[in-house]
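Researcher: I'm preparing a figure for a lab meeting and need a structural model of a single chain. I don't have an experimental structure, so a prediction will have to do for now. The sequence is pasted below. Please return the structure as C-alpha cells so I can convert it later.
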Amino acid sequence: MSYTFASATILLLLITDPLGNIPIFANALRGVAPERRARAILREVLIAFALLLVFLFFGAEFLRVMNLSDLSLQIAGAVVLFLIALRMIFPAAIGPQTELPGEPLIVPLAIPALAGPSALATVMLLVAQAPERKLEWVGALCVTMAVCAIVLLMAERIQRLVGERVVMAFERLMGLILVAISVEMLLRGIKQFAHQI
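Model: Understood. Here is the structure written out cell by cell.
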C-alpha cells in the first residue's frame, strides 16, 4: 500500500488524535490562566511539529546508525499502532490525576500526546517507503499539525457543543480505523519478510 498525500494526512491525524487529546490537554492546562492557554497549546503543537520534522528528515540516518531495516520499522510501527488503537477503543479507567505545578512544557502535551512513538515511527515509515516524496510528507505533517492546533484551541467549545460522550465515541471509531491500518501494515511487512526468506 503506497500512501498518497491524503492518506498520509489521514493516517497522521488518526495517530496524533487531536479529538482524543482534548481531555489530556484540558486536564494539563487546568491550572493555567485562561488567557495563557492558547499560547501554551500553540507552543506545544509547534514543539511536536519540530520533533516530527526532525524525525522525518533524519529518521533514515538514525535507522542506519542503529542498523535497523525499513522492514523492521514497518513491523514495529504496525505493532505500536495496534497497541495505540486498542487503547483508543478500550481506554483504561481514568483515575484522579495529579496536576503538574505551573504551565506544562514539552511533557506530557507535545511528547507523548502529539509526537508519541507511533507518530515518530509513522513519519520515518513514510520517508522510508518514498524518500523522493519528502516534501509531500512535510505538507501532510503541516496539515495535520494545523488541524491539531485548531481542534485543541477549540477544545472547550467542542466539549460543550457535542458533549464528552460524542468525543469518546468518535475517538473509538478512529481507533477501529487505526486497528485496520496497523493490521494492513503488519500483513504487508510479513509478506515482504516471506519474500526475503
